[in-house]
Amino acid sequence: MKYELVLVLKPLLPEDLKTKVLKKVEDYVESQKGKVVSKDVWGKKHLAYPIKKHEEGYYILYNIELTPDKIIDFQRELKLMGDILRYMTIKLD
Hints:
Layout: E1 2-9, H1 15-31, E2 35-51, E3 54-65, H2 68-80, E4 84-92
Antiparallel strand pairs: 1-3, 1-4, 2-3
């Protein structure tokens, strides 16, 4: 199954921590026999409303392939990552 994943990270994270979070996301997908098809870094954007007292967020768009039974565990894993403000996964046809 193909999915689109948008991550919003805390805006003031140092570059090495951003890289660490993104590597953790990519490694998790691959450990579940999934595939990261593409990654598009949108950069820092102003949020429509504050999230956890942050006015901005650092956006990354992923296109991934993952089996439907693994996506629920993946979303649970994303919730546990403290540096991610928000995420959204969308199933593509």
